[in-house]
Amino acid sequence: MPASLPPKTTVFTAAVIVAALGYFVDIYDLILFSIVRVASLNELGITDAKAVTDRGLFLINMQMGGMLLGGILWGVLGDKKGRLSVLFGSILLYSLANIANGFVTTIDQYAWLRLIAGIGLAGELGAGITLVSESLPKEKRGYGTMIVATIGVSGALLGYWVGNRFGWRNAYFVGGGLGLALLLLRVSVFESGMFQQQAQSDVARGNFLSLFTNAARLSKYLRILLIGVPLWFVVGILVTLAPEFGRALGLTGEVTAGLAVFWCYFGLVFGDFFSGALSQIWHSRNKALQVFLVFCAVLVGTYLFGVKDASPTAFYTVCFVLGVSVGFWALFVTVAAEQFGTNLRATVATTAPNFARGAVVGLVPAFKYLSGALGGIVPGAAVLGGLSLLVAFWAVRTLPESYGKDLDYVEE
């Protein structure tokens, strides 16, 4: 492994650029199933609307379940073996899995490959944000993670274009090919100097269970997880099930999940930029997060109650602004990385976003139960979304501010 380089004064370092491109491919592959869900299931013989919804939710759960497992695997590996080992290993796994996804002929094959892809997808963002956070000066690392997120989430836009223009199988092939090509760029990236210094000590690294053996550490970790749940309520429930919500809201025309995902992630590009910039300008991660959570609550209400009997164009416009409102994803992961020492930083920064993503596994049955109990998907989503946003707001309010924090320390 090449020797580490000293921190840079510019934010456009090799680590930032490669992490941004890696996250671009990661988001492309992560959100691709939501884009091609209906078309791929129809080709595999699932044509009944209810079956498409049920099977689609099952496959999402398999992918997100893989991300739960992968979050722990890659997080621990990142602290034990280094940030770069995760950046190489994770992208190789999910690239190969997505290429194989293009050949599936049964739902069972589809499910297992989404699980494997999910495991691979779990490592990219946390390792990239950790490396960037440790490589940049503390006053500028928020700009670095902002660049990673802004470029990264635009991968969903390419996924929509490829999926619609070339078909769902070719879309998986393209995603896998992009990942393999990105491996060639990774050779120019240096390992984190903080990690290399800490790796020479006798301090235990990557002990995931140590997050649960100290009450204060556990409380902080759980609050971090709760901050990310609203984003995946929006993406995993509201946007992925856009056709179902469109029918329930009586829209004047049919809407597609792929286009809803496109507009939501287009909004996320702007949201990630503005949330990161505000956290730097205000010198406060927590203040920026609180503003965006309130903004998100307003837009969730608009989505569920403000577009009834509206046109698809109005609905997609709301999806775009809803995407802006949940554009605090990289800021959330940055906060996770900044809250813990070098020997647990990759573990936290990798498990936190994946456990938040994996919350979809719990959100889906809760959504189904509330929809049945309250007489429809709209009131069910309103209650579930309201609860997730309230809890996330409380978590931010009680979390220590991390802007400008010195990260060169370890957890005892």
UniProtKB/TrEMBL annotation:
Residues annotated as domain Major facilitator superfamily (MFS) profile: 15-412
Name the UniProt record assigns to this protein: MFS transporter
Lineage of origin: Bacteria, Pseudomonadati, Bacteroidota, Cytophagia, Cytophagales
Coiled-coil intervals, chain numbering: none
Location (main, coarse): membrane
Organism: Hymenobacter negativus
InterPro entries attached to this UniProt entry: MFS, MFS_dom, MFS_trans_sf
Keyword Transferase in record: no
Keyword Isomerase: no
Compartments reported by the entry: Membrane
Keyword tags: Membrane, Transmembrane, Transmembrane helix
PROSITE patterns hit by this protein: MFS
SUPFAM superfamilies registered for this protein in UniProt: MFS general substrate transporter (SSF103473)
Residue ranges of the TM segments: 12-36, 56-77, 84-104, 110-131, 143-163, 169-189, 221-243, 255-276, 288-307, 313-336, 373-396
Membrane topology listed for this record: Multi-pass membrane protein
Origin superkingdom: Bacteria
